Each structure stands twice: as structure tokens, then as C-alpha cells.
Amino acid sequence: MIIAIDGPAASGKGTLARRLAAHYGLPHLDTGLLYRAVGHAMLEAGLSLEDEAAAARIAARIDPAAYDEETLKAGPVGEAASRVASVPEVRKALLFLQKSFAHQPGGAVLDGRDIGTVIAPEADAKLFVTASAQARAERRWHELLKRGEQLGLDDVLADIRKRDARDSGRSSAPLVQAADAMLLDNTALGVEESWQQALALVAARLGDRR
């Protein structure tokens, strides 16, 4: 059983994916961490994010388990991840890893930008999780403040909009809602409300499949 969760930055898809994985007893992969690991490695090596060849080489040998998740979720790494994720050769290098995870015995839950369209188009259930740019910026801003990163809300909102444009406009695996994905707009929903709606949607779809 494969469950695919897609959506833009700070939409809450990762939280929902982790809870769905726990609910159904499935392994979970936050595919965004793969791109964050590549971006982090580029920054650590002092490489230009414009160096697509270097990004592809790093992606081909990246081990996300070698990185601390909190480090990968820092603000500058998110921007770097969005930049390298637009490189077709980087996406190609990480494709096999993601597909292998999705198709392991028993299935899995994956969240990212192209799970339902590229990584696992045959997924048993697909969710496209979104919210307004303002709502997502406020969520990300509060997350960053908790980590001690002092950024203005306007700066976070500008970054969210820039990443949305880059993710949706790239030529390789752009962020789009799969034709058979169920839409969950949680702009006005709390965490528990969003979870209950996500669970209901997925359960209904899996019931249809079964």
C-alpha cells in the first residue's frame, strides 16, 4: 500500500504523512530531506548553487541518514534545497532511491512535491495538501523562531512565494496536483482538524481500492 502526499512548502504535509505512516504501520520518507541534504552539502563545501554538475555528483552519493534532521530544516538549507531540486540531474540521481522506498514490501508513505505524479503515480491514495501563502509563511515563521532564527514574517512570506514559483515552474517534475489526488486545503484548519480530514480522505480512498 503506497500513500503519496504532495504539497507546497509549510503546508503541513510532512506532519500528516508521519501520522498516516504511524496509523497504518508503514515506513515514512520525507523526500524533501533528500534535497535538503544535497543543498546542505553544497553549502558546507562552499559550492555555488549554480553549479549543477556538482549538485548532481553530490546527489548521486548522498546519505541523508548522515545528517541531523534539525540541521537540514534550518532556513538557509530550505532555500538551497529548492534551488538544487530544480536541477534535472539531481532529481534523476535521487529518483531510484525514492522509487525503491515507495515500492518496498508492504508499501510506504512518502511526502514531497512529485510523489503522486512521478515517484509513485500508481499510489493507492494521494493527497495534495495546501494552504494560502500567508498561512504557510506564518507557520514557517513560528517554526524558525522556535529554533532561534530571527527572521521577519515578510521575509519568510517572500521566500515561500519564491519557492512556490520555483517548484511550480521548473521543467523537471514541477509541483502540480495529480489528477486523481484528493485536495486538502488546511488554511483555516488546526492541526487536529487537518489530521482528521486527511485520515478520512485516505481511509475513504483505500476503502474504494479495497
Please write out the topology:
Blueprint: E1 2-6, H1 13-24, E2 28-30, H2 32-44, H3 52-61, H4 69-72, H5 75-84, H6 88-102, E3 108-112, H7 115-119, E4 125-130, H8 133-146, H9 153-169, E5 182-185, H10 191-209
Parallel strand pairs: 1-3, 1-4, 2-3, 4-5
Write a compact overview of the structure shown.
This protein has 210 residues and is an alpha/beta fold. The chain contains ten helices and five strands.
What is the alpha-carbon Rg in Å?
Answer: 16 Å
| CATH topology label | Rossmann fold
Mean pLDDT: 93
What is the tally of beta strands? 5
What is the total number of structural domains? 1
Describe the overall structure:
With 210 residues, this protein is of the alpha/beta class. The protein has one domain (2-209): 3-Layer(aba) Sandwich (Rossmann fold), CATH 3.40.50.300. Helix content is 57%, strand content 11%. It has 10 helices and 5 strands; from the N terminus they run βαβαααααβαβααβα. The protein has helices at 13-24, 32-44, 52-61, 69-72, 75-84, 88-102, 115-119, 133-146, 153-169, 191-209, and strands spanning 2-6, 28-30, 108-112, 125-130, 182-185. Strands 2-3-1-4-5 form a 5-stranded parallel β-sheet, with helices on both faces. α2 (32-44) crosses α3 (52-61), α3 packs parallel to α6 (88-102) and α8 (133-146) packs across α9. The relative contact order is 0.21.
List keywords for this structure.
single chain, Rossmann fold, 5 strands, transferase, kinase, EC 2.7.4.25, kinase activity
